[in-house]
Amino acid sequence: MILFILFFICRKCTERFRKHGIVCSTVQITIRDGTLSSYERQGQLIIPCHTTNELFNKAFELFKIHHQSFIPVRKLGVRACNLSTSNYVQLSFGDNFKEIEKHEKIDNTIDKLRYRFGHYAVQRGISLVDTELSHINPTEDHVIHPTSYR
User: Fold this and answer.
1) Does residue 133 or residue 54 have the better pLDDT?
2) Which of 3, 11, 35 is nearest to 110 (CA)?
3) pTM, 2 dp
């Protein structure tokens, strides 16, 4: 359940990044547990990117390292930091760059399918198991305001 929610948050973040041509180089998670204690942890990405898998993998790595599995999670948040435009990205000779490039193509294809046929055109199989989770559309259900309301 936590994995799906974490992936869901990362997917929506990266979808907005691709739409605006932004990449991130740092991932930060926020966790509030059952005792209402909150903490934040962050980690650096090897290559600045806007792929869902890279953001999720770093967020999940931070979650596994810093959260004790027997304590229930009350709030889970993912934040991308050190944003820059995707026009100028330092390339790498390693295999990691090829993997990121492959995931970028997949994510762009999914974005195009969702834009053309609607949010529910492409879904993860695990989301169909839980009817509450499979019917969440973050684009229509949640509004992100550019300025705060008082």
Assistant:
1) 54
2) 11
3) 0.77
